[in-house]
């Protein structure tokens, strides 16, 4: 993945690429267009119409991207299907929060999802970024260790971390005046439910076999969690 020359498309706010260091041209594959940056007026011009490019993406998206960069020092990269495969996205996965050893972080986002969904997915990944920065002080090693499923408390940590990300997401979306809450809650419900099935249930079964008793559960069940968000 070539990330050196990337920026945000002035029209759709997805990932676009500067053609080189010298030219002021930026190409967006999502919009299938090239724009020219005019430094004097700090605006992009459409090379076809010669007019100032108007943003089509929503204010919510604009503000979340701003929060990503300025509050959590995290770039957001929109991936097409081919790039998602290269990045190792699993079937149905639409976002990822990635940390590096030096404490840097990155959000990968399925650029082909519609904008309403992308806003919610981005808020969730930003929730991980907030968790990483506020609660882990950007310590990559501890961050990874806590969700290592081979460690004793890994499954607990994964569940807590996913719920934590949604709690932050809820706050962030309120902050950017988001309004599509039905959509938000159904996504949270689906997401927490699937972690419960794929992470918690297998752990519980393993624990039961090993110790002949159920493990203590430190996180709230889905319904209880959803209620706690409102
Ligand atoms: Zn675009
Ligand atoms: Zn997550």
How would you describe this structure to a colleague?
- With 230 residues, the chain is α+β, with helices and mostly antiparallel strands.
- It has two domains: 6-46, no CATH class; 60-70 and 114-229, no CATH class.
- 46% of the residues lie in helices and 17% in strands.
- Strands 1-2-3-4-5 form a five-stranded antiparallel β-sheet, with no helix packed on it. A three-stranded mixed β-sheet has the order 6-8-7.
- Helix 1 packs parallel to helix 3, helix 3 packs across helix 5 (154-175) and helix 5 (154-175) runs antiparallel to helix 6 (181-211).
- The chain is elongated and about 70 Å long.
- 30% of the residues are buried.
- Residues 9, 11-12, 14, 16, 28, 30-31 line the site of one zinc ion.
- One zinc ion is lined by residues 124, 128, 162, 165.
Descriptive tags:
230 residues; single chain; alpha+beta; five-stranded antiparallel beta sheet; 2 domains; 7 helices; three-stranded mixed beta sheet; elongated; binds zinc ion
